[in-house]
């Protein structure tokens, strides 16, 4: 990729908090890749260490059905911790293999992305702060929820070893044996020392990795989407307040930035939402998906409003070349920007309701089987 200038915190859109990116090292990862075109030592270590740690856990839970007695309740209990591990691995791999796209998408959180004229920046900053306020609150809540779940599990282990090895049915009926952190099976005498201690430390590491990096990746992808939404709102404001007179450079910037936003949104759809179809059970993911859908509807509305914004300006007073470009832009803006999951499923409320209906039907079926 051609090298680009690094991100600067002073140039981040007003109100958006990116301190978590610096604290967990992703700010340097993105900037190093933008300036050198290479992944730095931190992301290399992060990727390979997580793959080494997560792969045995995932593989063993896939094959455990052939080695221990299993019923529906026990399978659900094991999947409760198994599916988030797959989700975490998927996010790491998406970021690793799509780091070039991620680095480009981070330009969306910069104030100078649209090259808004100086006399309009005060109003643009107000728009940025209004949009990013809710994004900051959701990111803070994501960390609070994840850290609370992780540390409560670390302090109060709740999975008896005997239940995983020998029992079925309700986990709370098992009162014997040592307790560990995750509902996971290993081909070892899990209740004996030193295997129990080794497994306990291994599961604690897995929990800490998930608790730290699950919300970090979620917030990174979510803030890019919020940045795209904010840029469309500012672009709409810029277009609606644009007058011809002698401001031809501003007109050219409008066409250029609209094209950039459309290309960035398509890339964002492919990179940050690719894994949505794989995460339908985890309750935290459902909250995250709902937040993404809410912002997608805002994005759809704002991208469609560009047509009205351009039409409301004095585009018809400009030169012939600009008038043709403005007409093409308005025709292209008739259909707003849409996001899709794995290039097939539209990310909207109808999709969310279909997912919830499927989950409800599955739970009702399993409940009926248990009653029988």
From TrEMBL:
Q: Name one GO molecular function term.
A: olfactory receptor activity
Xref: InterPro entries: 7tm6_olfct_rcpt
Q: Which UniProt keywords apply?
A: Cell membrane, Membrane, Olfaction, Receptor, Sensory transduction, Transducer, Transmembrane, Transmembrane helix
Q: GO BP, one example? A: signal transduction
According to Swiss-Prot or TrEMBL, what is its membrane topology?
A: Multi-pass membrane protein
Where in or outside the cell it occurs: the entry states: Cell membrane
A cellular component annotation (GO) from this entry = plasma membrane
Please name one Pfam family that this protein belongs to.
Answer: 7tm_6
Transmembrane parts of this sequence: 47-68, 195-213
Highest taxon of the source? Eukaryota
Q: Which family does it belong to?
A: Belongs to the insect chemoreceptor superfamily. Heteromeric odorant receptor channel (TC 1.A.69) family.
PANTHER family attached to this UniProt entry: ODORANT RECEPTOR, ODORANT RECEPTOR 19A-RELATED
Query: What protein name does the entry list?
Result: Odorant receptor
Q: Which organism is it from?
A: Nezara viridula
């Amino acid at each position: 990729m051609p090298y680009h200038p690094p991100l600067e915190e002073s140039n981040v859109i007003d109100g958006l908090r990116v301190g978590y990116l610096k604290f967990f090292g992703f700010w340097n990862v993105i900037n190093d890749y933008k300036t050198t075109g290479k992944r730095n030592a931190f992301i290399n270590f992060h990727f390979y260490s997580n793959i080494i740690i997560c792969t045995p856990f995932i593989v063993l839970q896939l094959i455990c059905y052939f080695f221990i007695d299993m019923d529906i309740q026990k399978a659900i209990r094991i999947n409760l911790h198994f599916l988030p591990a797959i989700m975490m691995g998927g996010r790491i791999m998406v970021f690793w293999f799509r780091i070039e796209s991620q680095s480009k998408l981070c330009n969306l959180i910069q104030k100078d992305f649209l090259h808004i004229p100086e006399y309009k920046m005060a109003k643009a900053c107000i728009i940025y702060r209004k949009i990013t306020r809710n994004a900051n609150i959701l990111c803070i809540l994501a960390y609070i929820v994840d850290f609370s779940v992780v540390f409560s599990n670390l302090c109060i282990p709740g999975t008896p070893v005997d239940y995983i090895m020998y029992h079925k049915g309700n986990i709370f009926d098992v009162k014997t044996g040592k307790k560990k952190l995750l509902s996971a099976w290993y081909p070892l005498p899990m209740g004996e020392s030193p295997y129990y201690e080794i497994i306990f430390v291994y599961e604690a590491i897995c929990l800490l990795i998930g608790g730290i990096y699950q919300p970090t990746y979620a917030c990174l992808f979510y803030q890019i989407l919020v940045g795209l939404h904010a840029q469309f709102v500012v672009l709409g404001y810029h277009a609606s307040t644009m007058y011809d007179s002698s401001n031809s450079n501003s007109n050219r910037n409008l066409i250029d930035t609209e094209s950039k936003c459309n290309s960035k949104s398509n890339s964002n759809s492919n990179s940050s939402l690719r894994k949505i179809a794989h995460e339908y059970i985890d309750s935290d993911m459902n909250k995250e998906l709902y937040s993404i859908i809410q912002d997608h509807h805002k994005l759809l509305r704002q991208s469609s409003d560009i047509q009205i914004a351009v039409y409301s300006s004095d585009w018809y007073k400009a030169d012939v070349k600009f008038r043709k470009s403005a007409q093409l832009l308005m025709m292209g803006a008739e259909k707003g920007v849409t996001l899709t999951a794995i290039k097939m499923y539209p990310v909207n409320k109808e999709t969310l309701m279909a997912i919830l209906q499927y989950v409800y039907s599955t739970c009702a079926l399993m409940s009926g089987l248990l009653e029988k």
